[in-house]
Amino acid sequence: MPEVDFDAVFDALDLSRQGFLLPEQLQEFYLALYYEQVDIRHAQAAISQICGPSTQSTCDKKHFLDVLTELDRRKCLEEKVYWDFQALDRDGSHRLHLNDALLLFRATHGENFSFLMWNKFVASRVNREDDVCFDEIKMWLCMLPEGDPCREEEVEKEEDLINKRAEMDWEEREELLKLQEDGHTLAAEARQQQQYQAEFKYHGRRKLNRWNKGGVEAVIFDDGTDWGEDVQQKAKNRVGVTELLAALDEKYHLLREKLLEEMAKIHIGEVNWLSLSESERQEQLLQVQLKADQLFQNRHFDQASSLPGGGQPCDQNLRALMGEIYDDQKQRDQDQTEQTNRLREEGRSEEEIYQIFENIYRDFIVGSTTTGDLLSDLQQRYEHEKETLLGKLQADGTSALGVSERILALVYLMRQHRCARDEGKFDSAVLATGIAERFQMYRAERFDSDRSRQEQLAAERLQQRRGRKPTQITEEDHIKSGRGLGAGNQRR
């Protein structure tokens, strides 16, 4: 390779024949030579280090080669330090705690690490205890260390000091938050957390969707977009525990949202609620939800009526509205069958048996409640159903859920999602969801506790649709549905 005449290169760059080059000219030359952009601050620092600070950031011909060498050293070191920074960035925030920044200084400068350089870096920051980003630390890491090398004891003392400062700052922040704590602040924080969780779940589902529809290739060559709906999906042949638990969470989340909305309406008034924007309504819901979550985490279920909007009286409790979970109702039906057989052996009539079980169940579900207690009962029912489902998933033998049973359980939960989502009010949503949890027969041969719920749900739906314009049905569709034929038969 022929030797480069750097004097000629300098003359070619110094078109105005001033006898010096500016940092911007060095930056352009480096880009033309290596096809890589270099930070202008590196060019300025290289000139200052080689030519001296008195040159006012100009490089003469005598120091041209040394400045280029120093510039190249800084660029190579920056690339190495960047990956060390990424390795220490555990949470992906693109920032390092001050302790990790000290570790990066020590790893980069090695045996020549000194506190003189470290203290200068810390003193140059506006907020000394804040986390460190790469752009503000890279220039200091690329500098040649100044001062005497420090001992290991000094490093340990500095680390302890940083940790103590961090603990004090955290305690002060917690105290400040407690002083400033109000519903609006907590709601804003909860909204940010929910947005982060929603985004995290979205990307998780998106990747799973690509895996299910496109296989390994679709995941490897992920372009960040969702897989199209027109792509044929593979048949689902298994359901995991996580998927079932997520479906159960979604069911109770839908019901809880409807009840929280009614509680927020009661708290601020129907007229005020209608005047709020969508974001203001969500903030009201979050304020009630945060207080409810705090109560339930501390297991203070008996204090739920003290929640905002939680003292509104309700004629029916959750057990009357929703019934028992499937497994408890199944056990009740088995016990009822055994009791029915015994009563028949005693000579009781079917009407007497029906009346006995009706009275027993009426005593079981009797009792009024409040909106807050409904929310508390809903939380306890969710925990009970979750515990029951986990027990079946973790069981061995015949009681365990097989592949087909898991798929069927997921289908039932998705049907319950539809029932909870489609209903306008909490009462009708919880009635429809409870009915969908259990198998329904056209005509039950014995007392059916869901019969009254079906009638109540029908009445609720009629009440909600009252005053609305009915859907127009053509005569042809009316006859096809069978209603027209039925009406004709009645007239005859």
Describe this structure in words.
The protein has 492 residues and is an all-alpha fold. The chain has helices spanning 6-13, 23-34, 40-51, 64-88, 98-109, 115-123, 134-142, 152-180, 183-220, 241-268, 270-275, 278-297, 318-322, 326-345, 350-365, 371-394, 403-422, 426-437, 450-465, 475-480, 483-491; strands at residues 20-21, 59-60, 95-96, 132-133, 313-314, 369-370. It is elongated, with a radius of gyration of 36 Å.
Strand order of the largest sheet: 1-2
Cα(first) to Cα(last) distance is 109 Å
Q: If helices are DSSP runs of H or I spanning 4 or more residues, what is the number of helices?
A: 21
- Uncertain runs are 475-492
SS strand fraction: under 5%
Q: Helical content, roughly?
A: 55-70%
Observed structural traits:
492 residues; disordered C terminus; single chain; two-stranded antiparallel sheet; mainly alpha; two-stranded antiparallel ribbon; 6 strands
Short précis:
The chain has 492 residues and is mainly α.
